[in-house]
Amino acid sequence: MLIPEEVASGVFTVAAGDHRTAFVVGSGGVVALNSFGSRDRAQSYRQAIADAAGGAEPEIVVATIDHLDHTGATADFAPRAEIVAHELCARVIEGRGAPSQRLPQRPIRGGGEELELGGTRFALRYLGPTQGTGNLAVHLPEHRVLFLAGPRGDARYGLLPDFHLRHVTRIWREIAALDVDVVIPARGRLMTTAELVRAADYLDAVKRACQEGFAAGLPIWEIETLGPFVSDRLREGFGDLPGFDRHIGITSIRVVHHYLMGGWGMEDTAEPDALLEPSAPQ
Amino acid sequence: MIDPSSCHRGIFDIGAPLNGYAFPTTVSYRPVSGRLWTASDGIYRSVFLEGDEGVIAFDTFWSPAAASSYRTAIDRVLPGREIHTVVYSHDHLDHTGFARDLAPEASTIIAHVDAARVIAARGSDGQAPATETWSGERRSFKIDGAEFELINPGATHGNGNVAAWFADARTLFMVDTVIPGVGYTFFPDWHLDSYVSNMRQLQELDWDSFIPGHFWPLDRAGFHENLAYYERISEVALDALAEGVDPDDYPAIDAWCRERLGGELGRVFRYQEYIGMNVMRYMLHHVTGGWGLEDACGTGGGTP
């Protein structure tokens, strides 16, 4: 059973294990973000919405990211709702063809759109590659709430799955400048904008320390060597983050390979928007 | 010697001297067949071709100093020859990042358009952009009397990653795909969704020896066995998820792997270093559904 927590009037968040999402009960209906990744969790999420919204079902689902653990159960969660997603996210979902993950019907183009969904004003922002593909920041300006998959209020980033390290922290900082009271991440506990900035500070510090280790000639493929090197440099500033000691080694291995290899794909270049062009690889 | 303060800097954005990039390596070499040679510093490996007049080098090695050592090796085998052509296997800096150090005189840099697009947009210091691109699945080249074919099997690793087939030498060269032993660290920038099936297409070609971008050449049985390893790790990752192992918790995954897989895989090269990371990456692949358009479309960028 998932227990909704109201973070602003009509805006609720629910957590299942480490995963988290949100929904809005507006004057024109319920708009849900994501679906969780399994049938059980999707059905629990659906029930949580019904409990908070007098039995209502989600009429619109915003799929904020392509990853299955967040949006892979939309078929069970909301089989009749309209699915909204960024065009890049929609392209991946279509290409993947997972039966449990419904195809978006309403694409959000380019850098995003402001629109009214279910009687609530949404700003769906795509500022560039952060994690996954077509990852939308969902801003509810009237409620002073932001939802974003990627950042965490701790250091439990593991392997930074599908993070795009060239741009992610710059974009998080831009998003943190929005005038909001609550940041709802897709993993872990609720955050403030100050904590979102700190999350960017943390990843930037890991990037800097990994470069220093590489520059010094460390065997960067050895977690037993690189992990302690980075940990020693970051402990004073970030050692209080839950999960720091358990995750810093593998996170560092991921980050240092960004510099060894030069980044991954167009997302990690100076021209990530080229992916939005009609001639971009399909 | 390379100066760590003034050498090409890849994408580093710190100001410190890059001693790691300036560390001198020793590149050894041996003939493969006919015009084809292979060179290695013990970890990285590449190939080069003797032309009628000059040299066609594949890739550049991983640092300014390693590129310089690669050049020294080529100069020992083919003294006084110009490296007029560099062929890029894919976009990553640790294989193709330092043509400016290897062969500043090279007038032709060949890359698949999917790699060339990333390289141009990246703007890494030391990585020369392609001067000649090709698209699609296959292209034959005859340069300075040497012949080879480049083959793009689809999404495998990196962008525009292509195999070079030297039919006369019955040899296939491809980087950061099949490598002896377990996978490298966490399969960085591997496109796991279609990797094995795309790589298996290369078994249809007529070759006896596969030269990887790391360590030593393999025969067809070794190539096949290596791809089977990926399939096994994919299964293992599903088992770990089913048992409730946290896909973000590397120490827990590594411990789980060592408890269960030592008997089966413990003697595979570099098992001790990377088995946990290999399984972790596959667990995350299964959980997230793959990463990006490459995993969703399986075409490696999909230039038709």
Would you mind describing this structure in some detail?
The complex is a heterodimer of chains A (282) and B (304). By secondary structure, chain A is α/β, with parallel strands linked by helices. Chain A has 2 domains: 145 residues, 4-Layer Sandwich (Metallo-beta-lactamase, Chain A); 107 residues, no CATH class. In chain A, the strands form 2 sheets. Chain A has a 7-stranded mixed sheet. The model of chain A has no long low-confidence stretch (mean pLDDT 97). Chain B is α/β, with parallel strands linked by helices and 304 residues long. Chain B has 2 domains: 157 residues, 4-Layer Sandwich (Metallo-beta-lactamase, Chain A), CATH 3.60.15; 109 residues, no CATH class. In chain B, 35% of the residues lie in helices and 19% in strands. Chain B contains 10 helices and 12 strands. A 7-stranded mixed sheet of chain B has the order 1-2-3-4-5-6-7. Chain B has a 5-stranded mixed sheet with strand order 8-9-10-11-12, with no helix packed on it. The longest helix of chain B has 23 residues. Chains A and B meet through helix 4, helix 6 and helix 8 of A and helix 1, helix 5, helix 9 and helix 10 of B.
